[in-house]
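Hi everyone, sorry if this is the wrong subforum. Our group has a chain we'd like a structural model of before ordering constructs, and none of us has done structure prediction before. Sequence below.
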Amino acid sequence: MFFIILNFTLSGALFVVAMMTFNKVSTPREVVFASLPFLFALHQFTQGFVWLGMYGLIGPRPLELAEGIFVFYAQGLLQFLIPLSLWLIEPAGIRRKLIGILMVIGGILTAYTLYGLAIEPTSVYVKNHILVYVNDWTDKLWVGGLYVLTTCGALLLSRSIAIQLFGLLNLIFLILVYLFIPYGLTSIWCLYAAAVSVLLYFYFVERRIDFLKVLKKKEVDFNTKLEKELTTLKHRYPKLREKWQRHFSMDRLGSDHLNR
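Answer:
Right subforum, don't worry. Here is the predicted structure as tokens:
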């Protein structure tokens, strides 16, 4: 029962983070990236139903639907969705081109895995209190290698420190799980990735800080140029200010006299 509570609780917490992330979106290109915490929330919500099925609390059909949704997202979509979301928000340059290459590889891998998941049944069972998802089509070393390359690789290529940290933490944890609990790689890693996806929110915080720095720099540059221009005018036309002040004073006195 522990994992049922954990999955549903994590899903609710991620939903709150997702709403906060959506509020920070400023351009259409950020929508896919901002959707990741929300998708992770739905993903963990789905795994909660898988656990319910393992305890016999829901019927075979709902269980089959829940495990199908979970595996299709975890093994079939993430390898394309993550590099796509990063390619959309990354500024032009070599990093964006490399992420674009990973996005193409991820797209091909997604087509391959989705086809396999559709024709090859996935079995789910519990081992040492961990959900184990097994599909002969995707259970290949080269598939796993390309999966890690397109997901973690794209995250590490980002300019954002928050996104790089998210990718690094995922890569380290994935290696640890693969070494010590390889049978739980899909369920445990997805659970961890969902938990640390809160870091994606800080991309928008980081971007806001950068925006304010640029704004402040422009303000300083403008004030410097303005001060320089005023100093130049004062030196070139020393009497101009006094002339306009006298002219303004006379106009004001005349206006006051007419009003009387």
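For your construct planning: The beta strands are 123-127, 130-134. The two ends are 89 Å apart (CA to CA).
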